[in-house]
TrEMBL record:
PROSITE patterns: MFS. PANTHER family: BLL3282 PROTEIN. It comes from the Bacteria. It holds the Pfam family MFS_1. It comes from Azospirillum baldaniorum. Keywords: Membrane, Plasmid, Transmembrane, Transmembrane helix. SUPFAM superfamilies: MFS general substrate transporter. Gene3D superfamilies: MFS general substrate transporter like domains. The chain crosses the membrane at residues 5-29, 41-66, 78-107, 156-176, 243-266, 278-297, 303-325, 346-367, 373-391. Residues 7-395 form the Major facilitator superfamily (MFS) profile domain. This is Permease of the major facilitator superfamily. GO terms for molecular function: transmembrane transporter activity. InterPro entries: MFS (IPR011701), MFS-Transporter (IPR052952), MFS_dom (IPR020846), MFS_trans_sf (IPR036259).
Amino acid sequence: MNVWLLPLIAMAAVQAFVGLCLFAIPVIAPQAAPDLGVDPGLLGLYTAVVFTAAIPASLGAGGLIARWGAIRTCQACLLAAAGAALLSASALPIAFLLGALALGFAFGPETPASTQLLSRLTPPEKRPLVFSLRQTGNQFGGMAAGFAVPLLVLSVGWQASLMVVAGATAVLALALEPLARRHDGDDRAAPRPAGRGTLKRALDLVAGEPALRRLAMAVCAFSAMQLCLNGFLVSFAVTSLGWSLPLAGTALAVAQGAGLVGRVGWGLVATRWAPPRVILAGLGVAMSVAAALVAIASPGWPVPAFLAVCAAFGLSASGWNGLFVSEVARLAPPGRAGEATGGMLAIAYAGLVAGPALFSLLVAGGFGYSAGYLAAAAAALAGVAALVIPLPPAPTPDLSTAAEDTPCA
């Protein structure tokens, strides 16, 4: 058996369960919002808090991996995500906020840790496909949230549903222990404090490479679009289209299923037929069109037609992530894939913070979900521009002037 296969399955499962803890929140939003005393649209601010916390957590991922190892870092992320679900289940607004912070600290190091592990175990020629397969974990988590969580909510209520999600996530953390003993010794280096120096190194690594900078700008916009798709689709279908909660959950599951197909499919296309940057630009245009179609949807639309739009939305807005991670692993210096991924994700998470926050404010301000999806479409087109419009060259110092201005000894 290939040495990377079992770690790949494990890392995809980690992403699936951390994602499930996040996706469960928008699914339970229509039921939970009255108990919390807020508008369902305002629960989009939950994801803004999550990814605000994820920014420093992702930047510090390199230090955590060096100290604990990649898999033990993932175990810590799973336990933090389980704790976040339990806190949210309390129905106390302050506990909901603390849960969002805990989930952010789970999201930050999880992808850098898996990137570090898989980049070490996977041959370079297999990395686009392996990383695309690993990124399907997010879609499995989203589909589980779309199909299973609504049924749990109707059976046992939204609070008990979050408790079930928390328990399953904690069980996975314990199940990873044999893999941690086998692989983490190779990942650990001399311990380094996860402080300011570590955070700055991760950002400097991204800022110092033009290809990473361009990718970071696009990914920031695409991430905002992806969270607007995942975070508001269920509430939009319930409140604007008049759908039942299980049917609205099905729309999210369809989008996530299409994203799963896209992550693998676009990875195969990138290895055989087209450069990743070209594919990413095309996906940016496609997700903008899909978001605009969602924005104009009305209760009179046939259910299959809206589900088809959701599938196109997921194929594009949730299908680009594998290409992104494999490109970071390719461009990163040897042994620094996790650190580079952490720096890139910090920039991506800025989009994850701004996108849902702006969307929630538009909904709360009376502009509606349609305005939010149109704003997300405009942001995605800006990301396409970052990929296709050449950046101006970095200024070079005038050495002759500097020499004239320097006093002689």
